[in-house]
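Known limitations

Files may contain more than one protein. Parsers should not assume a single record per file. Below, a two-record file is shown to illustrate correct handling: read the sequence, read the token line, then continue until end of file.
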Amino acid sequence: MSWFWLAVGAAFFLATSDFLLKRNFSDLPVGQMILVRLSGLLPAGLALLLLAPIPPIKPQFYWSVALALPAEILALYLYNRAIQASPLALSLPFLSFTPLFVAVIGFLVLGESLDGWGLGGIVLVVIGAYTLNLHTIGQGGWSQPIRAIFREKGSWMILLTSLLYAYTLTMCKNAMLGSSPWFMAGVYPSVLAILVVAGMGVAGRLGWDWLRRPWGVAGVGLSTVAMVICHYWALSMAPAAYMIAVKRLSILMAVAYGGVFLKEARLGQHLLAGGLMVGGAVVILLWG
């Protein structure tokens, strides 16, 4: 199977799991929403760990995973809290900022140059973010679309999540170079799930109301399993930048889910804004 269609599949299943999580579980505490997502993530990770051959493991694998996990746990909380708190169309498009943050961090910290394509991609992402709340201009001038980002909990939470992902993606890439994509696909989500559940148990935050909604749990769990498989299968066949660029289509799919099935307002405006942001992210990933 072509890596392109696998990446499209990863985008579709990610958007589907986000939609099902919001529709069926957003009335529960965010900790229980996380448990629902982990109900698919942990079995997928363990299955891949059992099936994948154990490669030679370099020291960089261990320290990269150790450095990535605290930020990954915080990102997991913010991601699910954003889905709970805000419309999908006003939160998930800000995932497009991840490659922007990677490019900016590379410029500031590593001195990597930003060429015309990279700058153009950044401009598209910023214009898209502005367009997302374009209708608020009439409420107080040109600055209102920017202020609206920080008034909407899901927007700034996903913006912060994107910054965390810019960091964890770098660490995870380093960990894969010290092992293999399939081994990383098995170990990383499994360790993440175990740490989160253990931490919630120690804090007394485990709740089980979500188990009373088995069909919703099955939908999120199976979508998550399918996403993980498609993600790492595509990653084993194509450069990471290409695969992630295609997977960013999940943002537009999630916006469509929100508009069509959750009756979120201004679907056309949000699809246009999301398209600009995804387009900018793709430009940065592929040519920036």
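...continuing to the second record:
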Amino acid sequence: MIKAGIVGITGYAGVELFRILTKHPEVEIAVVGSQSSTGEKLGTFYPHLSNFDISSVNTDPNELAKTCDVIFTATPHGGASAPYIEPAKKLGKKIIDLSADFRLTNLAVYEEWYKEKNHCPDIAKEAVYGLPELHKDNIKKAWLVANPGCYTTASILANYPLLHYGLIEEDSIIVDAKSGVSGAGRKIKQNLHYSEMEGGISAYSIASHRHTPEIEQELSIAAGKEIKITFTPHLTPMIRGILATSYSTAKKEVDLSKIVEMYKDFYKDSPFVRIAEGYLPCTKFTSGTNYIDISVNFDRRTRRMVVVSSLDNMIKGASGQAVQNMNLMFGLEETLGLDFIALYP
């Protein structure tokens, strides 16, 4: 059995990891930890887990590395995961970091967007970007995986084939994305109060969202050159889900049926990518699952590609993807422990 440790159990990503891993046939949850709730039973801060006789501990990085085979750091960006990196590397253990600290390969770009220096600059170059649909072989060999977030996963996977096959103008991509409020975390904020956000939808971080360079980094690989996109996120009055609509200009008139086949071929070895035909993606269709639904459309009047993608921001956009990466790192079946059917309706 793989012994797993979860750092950051009191956050939404941490508790979702716990839920998924409790049913994973090859995993034993050895340690759960949180600096804010040390010594408290899980049921104290998450009543739905009151049947588990497990307490949160103050996870010493060296002890955690000795105890666990893999450590999930479900921590905020800004160096919270840094203390766990070196001890894990020294003992040959694996780290899956759910923060943004190791996702950007260019540390100057990280500093520009996050307004601070990376806390592990020497080790950062060893991290593998954990998007299995694009980097599966490297993930299998990695000891440190930078687990992508929800907006990035939805945006990158929706647009990557278009750039890979050279079908669109590289500078024409616009992503309009909507997220459920769980993506903002569990901390109380005024705009997340029920009375503030129920019945409304609002844009935020226009031209400044920190996921933008991450999306650009991966799509630039597809294009074979540096590209920039326009990315606008929105907060919607729902708990879970990402719905992203991407617009781009086709280089020429296209046969939509052929492009759909290109997408199918590109993702033929990606068990959690569903190319939607006969329906448009909806957040309810992926809620509670590790799937991403992608619908490819073409507006002949404006010669624009319109690609719609949806996923569960807490699973394929966070914790489920982390478990998918763990499966690959340990040579397990990629889908193991992740074969959820959507919570519908």
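Parsers that stop after the first record will miss the second one. For reference, the second record is described as follows. The first helix runs from residue 12 to 22.
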